[in-house]
Amino acid sequence: MNVSAAPEKTSSRYPWLHPRDEIMQTMARIYRSRMTTTSGGNLSIRDDNGDVWITPARIDKGSLKRDDIVCVHADGTVDGKHKPSSEYPFHKAIYEVRPDIKSVVHAHPVALVAFSICGQTPDTRIFHQAHAVCGQTGFAPYALPGSERLGESIAEQFAAKCDSVILENHGVVVGGDSLSQAFERFEAFEFAAKTIIRGRQIGDIKYLDESQLQMARDRSVDLESMDHNTPTPAENELRRQLCEFVRRGCRQGLLISTEGSFSARVSDDSFLITPTQRDRETLQIGDLVFVSGGKREAGKKASRAVFAHQAIYRKHPNVKAIAFAHPVAATAFSVTDAVFDSKMIPESYVFLRDVLRIPYGVQYQNDGTIADHIADSTPTAVLDNDGVLITGGTILETFDRLEVFESTAEALVQSRAIGPLSAMPDKVINELKDAFGLK
């Protein structure tokens, strides 16, 4: 086999990036997030010539190099220094029944594997975004890994227009019109599965009905555009910080590529916010959207939560940064009726204060009522079926609160396996308020 024999092709969403590099980078991201193992999982891209670029068989996924990627040509010949993945047959089968699919991701992330060995498929209606991103879900009966029968079983699901499919006693396979879309589906599917599992530890899961899903789809984010060509040094510093903390949040599992928004106030009625439909982890400072006086920076699309951010900034001058986020343990509280009680740990109460619950859909309205749920004494909240809302006086403070929120939630979830919870009495809370100058 000859690595150099394969011509240099490009992938659809990133025309400047070779399939070898896109597969290598995406696999590194999956492995870093512990959503696959050294020997598990495989990715592929089908290019416009019908050639399939795929990860190799029996090669360490934690140290994959670009020249490890194999090209299987449309005529069946293979270029590369390794054999293609042993599960190439089901990649091929998916491409044959779904011409619209250009990339496939298969791996064994823990939560989705848990569903697979229970013979179940996660219901993505816990969040509007997960439901939209994952597409139609399916379940493929067990067949021997690498076999033609497994390919047939999976292809049947994709032929029925499924995009994210659980493999019985095996794992998951998802498809997309690009590797980036396939990855986003894979990540969102695992996130939904994790949240359901955590949620079931503390209560009954609340799923969204069609009218609630439609409410999210129908929200308006139509802002008039404006020119913004001369950002100040202060604004550029905020851009740098936002990108840094969004990236850190993704790598710590506090954010995922398709969920949540983060913003920072620039002046009285202007702020920077993450864009919509962009991978959060790969954002650059120029991708952030400047919003001022109800107008947005020309050529960019602000997060669909932009009106909620705007309302909070306008009502609360002390708020300098806002995050709508979906860390798994904290989000488990949002999809159940379980009460998030910050009065369990001194640091949690000092940072989070009294955590309120905001009814579903308030954040989608353009009437500003979301701002009524935030105050100096209530800087954080649980959003029904939509994660958490965090505010702060700086980007750092907001991110710190997000970390504390998730670590507290994780402790509360895990404590259910130990025994009754012991909340701090009012005397202790009053002592904390006096010591830290809390209102």
Automatic annotation (TrEMBL):
Gene that encodes the chain: fucA_2
Organism taxonomic ancestry: Bacteria, Pseudomonadati, Planctomycetota, Planctomycetia, Pirellulales
Entry-linked SMART domains: Aldolase_II
Organism of derivation: Neorhodopirellula pilleata
Residues of the Class II aldolase/adducin N-terminal domain: 21-197, 240-413
GO cellular component: cytosol
Name the record gives this protein: L-fuculose phosphate aldolase
GO BP term, example: pentose catabolic process
Top-tier EC class: lyase
E.C. no: 4.1.2.17
Annotated GO MF terms: L-fuculose-phosphate aldolase activity; metal ion binding
InterPro entries: Aldolase_class_II_sugar_metab, Aldolase_II/adducin_N, Aldolase_II/adducin_N_sf
Keyword list, A-Z: Lyase, Metal-binding
